């Protein structure tokens, strides 16, 4: 068990591929070449789509947007451990995870462009919509998992949140419930070192976030969040534990937000260029591609970038071509059935 | 069977749990203890601790977990021990439950009931006497339901559990054991969003709900003139049609609620009456409510709480105008 081997209280961190792309084969999870390439493709697509979203925002074509840059491994690795029947509960900075779980890029763009249709996912996609009130998705993920238990499903519920979210009451209430009822949850805290400008050290005096799990009565593990292999391995183990009825796990993904909090933010206000440069060296994409190249799996990155770039452009065009909601769209989903006074307000062309 | 409101709610819950295995209960002390008012008494023995869940002491957690359950196919009925502690759930209810349907264009919905005892008039501890239904009623996407009798409680709760949208179900503590009435054993449904005419009359329309209904009935018992009493039942979405049509006939209206006056439901009801019946009105809409003060501790509660005398005076003012 990785959770036995890596004790967060001793600051031990799971890492399988290091910054140079060197792998510890003893810890390496079983992954086919196809799976590896699909993972890289998703991470690269996330990076390119993320850049594009920022550009679109700067051009006034997309609203405020929270970039994923630097967190691609932290997002995609856990999602890779999910099966189709498993749920993915996210916050707002998990584009890569959603891509893996089947939420199309154009749908995600549509949401950030300000259309509720961006919360409408393909039939059968077990992904909840974005959650802006920080941390409030955590107890919901526990309820989804509890319902799965009652309905005798074998599904696992993976929930993402940030380091800032761990200071919210909902984090405590959610993990506490999960521990008490041993729900099949995997909690992934993307510790990207910041909640807007506030450093991780201002969120908790705990040496690690992972060790908080101990108090809730289940295992926690600290993982190098820029290492896709480590994130995948830790989540896979946690998901199997959950599926076997052995309860939840907290995974702290130790990563870094390389870009701004959102497009409304300016990171230069609260951190140095040197600090960011240091983390650019640890870029999860560079590390992964070095590993793939060393294995001889990744040959023509340039044409992959070109292909994905076209996908991104297409998705943006498609999202932009989606018409804005009409009057009925914004009224009719308030209740299953529209109350008469609401129908009157709508009929009057509410201004 | 003769039942008080506690028994009627218990019967509604057990009937629905019997009928539909996706109905689960959760809350603080709802299992072994049967709830602090014994509303869920005996249900854990019948349905097991997986479906009658004693939760940690965590209101936001209860609401959040219930939302998750509803998203994944259950019909949770969550209990908040007292309305005064329900403010911890506002984030979950307002930011999630109420808007999930709209923001996913109907793909994801939250069919849950958030039950809680509410209201003053039983000389309870501080924070145990709130009636802040307007807080919830202002939120599009939430339904707010208040029963006034045991029979009503059974029918409205069953409808709330079967409703496709989140319902805040407020149980007037004062009415829990005040009255027994005949409640049918099997299914009894009262539709949401439809007011009930408690008593027909020609001279004045009195609108109320919950624990106010019996007070209103007594207050007008020896009135000179005939009063029509409307039990709103659902605060939101409100049956303004029933109210407006009645006022068009009587020409006078009194709204009675135990919540403080300002920004209370009475203001909304009065506005709808003005919008729908201004030319038929012979007097301004009278509001009989609590004053805009914090609910006093038990010794001062009578200064706050609406009583028969205050209702009578309000009705007479409307009639005299
Ligand atoms: C309850 C709540 N408080 C404040 C905010 C404003 N806000 C948005 S994101 C954020 C920081 C979140 O930090 P973290 O949980 O670490 O996630 P990250 O943004 O780093 O991904 C804040 C304070 C909010 N959305 N919700």
Describe this structure in words.
The complex is a heterodimer of chains A (351) and B (321). Chain A is of the alpha/beta class and 351 residues long. Chain A has one domain: 3-Layer(aba) Sandwich (Rossmann fold), CATH 3.40.50. Chain A is 45% helix and 9% strand. In chain A, the strands form two sheets. Chain A has a six-stranded parallel beta sheet with strand order 1-7-8-4-3-2, sandwiched between helices. A two-stranded antiparallel sheet of chain A has the order 5-6. In chain A, helix 9 links the parallel strand 7 and strand 8. In chain A, helix 2 crosses helix 12, helix 3 runs parallel beside helix 9 and helix 5 packs across helix 12. The longest helix of chain A has 26 residues. Chain A is globular. The termini of chain A are far apart. The mean pLDDT of chain A is 96. Chain B is an alpha/beta fold and 321 residues long. Chain B has two domains: 181 residues, Thiamin diphosphate (ThDP)-binding fold, Pyr/PP domains (Rossmann fold); 125 residues, Rossmann fold (3-Layer(aba) Sandwich), CATH 3.40.50. Helices cover 35% and strands 19% of the residues of chain B. In chain B, the strands form three sheets. A seven-stranded mixed beta sheet of chain B has the order 3-2-4-5-7-6-12, with helices on both faces. In chain B, strand 6, helix 7 and strand 7 form a beta-alpha-beta unit. Chain B is globular. The mean pLDDT of chain B is 96. Classes of the chains: A alpha/beta (351), B alpha/beta (321). The interface between A and B is large, with 45 and 50 residues. Thiamine diphosphate (TPP) binds next to strand 3 and strand 5 of chain A. The site of thiamine diphosphate has 15 residues of chain A, from strand 3 and strand 5.
Helix content of chain B: 25-40%
In the residues of chain B, how many domains can be counted?
A: 2
CATH class of chain A: Alpha Beta
* Main sheet summary of chain A: 6 strands, parallel
**Order of neighbouring strands in the sheet with most strands of chain B:** 3-2-4-5-7-6-12
Largest interface: A-B, 45 and 50 residues
User: How many strands, which pairing sense, and closed or not: the largest β-sheet of chain B?
Assistant: 7 strands, mixed
Radius of gyration of chain B: 19 Å
């Amino acid at each position: 068990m990785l959770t036995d081997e890596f004790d967060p209280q001793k600051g031990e961190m799971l890492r399988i591929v290091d910054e140079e792309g060197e792998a510890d084969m003893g810890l390496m999870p079983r992954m086919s070449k196809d799976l590896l390439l699909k993972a890289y493709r998703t991470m690269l697509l996330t990076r390119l789509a993320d850049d594009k979203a920022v550009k679109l925002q700067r051009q006034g074509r997309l609203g405020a947007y929270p970039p994923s840059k630097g967190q691609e491994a932290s997002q995609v690795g856990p999602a890779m451990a999910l099966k189709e029947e498993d749920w993915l509960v996210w916050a707002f900075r998990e584009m890569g995870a959603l891509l893996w779980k089947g939420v199309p890029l154009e749908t995600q763009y549509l949401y950030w462009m300000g259309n509720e249709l961006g919360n409408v996912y393909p039939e059968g996609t077990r992904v909840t919509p974005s959650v802006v009130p920080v941390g409030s998705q955590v107890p919901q993920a526990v309820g989804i998992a509890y319902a799965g238990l009652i309905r005798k499903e074998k599904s696992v519920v993976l929930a993402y949140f940030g380091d800032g979210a761990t200071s919210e009451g909902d984090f405590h209430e959610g993990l506490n419930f999960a521990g008490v009822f041993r729900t099949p949850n995997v909690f992934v805290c993307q510790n990207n070192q910041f909640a807007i400008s506030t450093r991780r050290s201002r969120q908790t005096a705990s040496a690690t976030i992972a060790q908080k799990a101990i108090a809730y009565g289940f295992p926690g593990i600290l993982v190098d969040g820029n290492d896709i292999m480590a994130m995948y391995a830790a989540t896979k183990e946690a998901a199997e534990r959950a599926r076997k009825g052995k309860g939840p796990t907290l995974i702290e993904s130790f990563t870094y937000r390389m870009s701004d909090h959102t497009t409304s933010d300016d990171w230069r206000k609260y951190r140095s260029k040197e600090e960011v440069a240091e983390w650019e060296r640890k870029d999860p994409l560079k590390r992964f591609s070095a590993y793939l190249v060393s294995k001889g799996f990744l040959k023509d990155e340039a044409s992959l970038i070109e292909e994905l770039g076209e996908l991104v452009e297409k998705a943006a065009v498609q999202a932009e071509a989606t018409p804005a909601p009409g009057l009925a769209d914004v009224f009719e989903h308030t209740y299953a059935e529209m109350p008469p006074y609401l129908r009157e307000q709508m009929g009057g062309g509410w201004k | 069977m003769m039942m008080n409101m506690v028994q009627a709610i218990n019967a509604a819950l057990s009937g629905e749990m019997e009928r539909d295995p996706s109905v689960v209960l959760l809350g603080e002390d709802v299992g072994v203890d049967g709830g602090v008012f014994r509303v869920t008494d005996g249900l854990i023995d019948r349905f097991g601790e997986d479906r009658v869940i004693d939760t940690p002491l965590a209101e936001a957690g209860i609401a959040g977990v219930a939302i998750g359950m509803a998203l994944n196919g259950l019909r949770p009925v969550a209990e908040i021990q007292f309305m005064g502690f329900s403010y911890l759930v506002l984030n979950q209810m307002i930011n999630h439950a109420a808007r999930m349907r709209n923001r996913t264009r109907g793909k994801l919905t939250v069919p849950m009931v958030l039950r809680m005892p509410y209201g003053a008039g039983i000389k309870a501890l501080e924070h145990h006497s709130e009636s802040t239904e307007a807080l919830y009623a202002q939120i599009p996407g939430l339904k707010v339901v208040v029963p006034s009798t045991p029979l009503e409680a059974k029918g409205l709760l069953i409808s709330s559990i079967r409703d496709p949208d989140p319902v805040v179900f407020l149980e007037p503590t004062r009415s829990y054991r005040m009255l027994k009435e005949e409640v049918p054993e099997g299914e009894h449904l009262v539709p949401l969003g439809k007011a009930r005419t408690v008593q027909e009359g020609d001279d004045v329309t009195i609108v109320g709900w919950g624990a106010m209904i019996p007070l209103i009935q007594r207050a007008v018992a020896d009135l000179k003139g005939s009063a029509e009493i409307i039990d709103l039942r659902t605060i939101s979405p409100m049956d303004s049609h029933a109210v407006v049509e009645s006022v068009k006939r009587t020409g006078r209206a009194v709204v009675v609620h135990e919540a403080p006056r300002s920004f209370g439901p009475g203001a909304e009801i009065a506005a709808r009456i003005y919008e729908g019946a201004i030319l038929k009105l012979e007097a301004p809409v009278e509001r009989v409510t609590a004053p805009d003060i914090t609910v006093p501790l038990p010794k001062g509660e009578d200064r706050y709480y609406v009583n028969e005398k205050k209702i009578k005076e309000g009705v007479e003012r409307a009639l005299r105008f």
